[in-house]
């Protein structure tokens, strides 16, 4: 189904939002999937343990948003973001950060180096994660 065919009434946001989770820790990824699947307007279309697997899933499932764990190797994260966006330029990328939310200035620097569109700390409540997914899908800063 095309994005245009899935547009929700009035909002301009596809419904449901198709989300790919990219995290090497399967237990946490599966838990996040179960929580996000409870959201009426979010559909987790796949999980990937690393960037290469994410590329395959992006090409097959065409997610609107990719939730990508940002570990310590920001150069590697930047390369994954660039490859994912080259496969599907319309996809939006949200970084799951390990610690507190980065300041606006810090995130701007990360966004320039990675191409990410938003961020959310990994220990955030699921409502916050869902809100960031929605905001980024709507092209709002998050």
TrEMBL record:
- Domain Response regulatory span(s) in chain numbering: 18-137
UniProt superkingdom = Bacteria
User: What is the protein name for this chain?
Assistant: Two-component system NarL family response regulator
What species does this protein belong to? Answer: Actinopolymorpha cephalotaxi
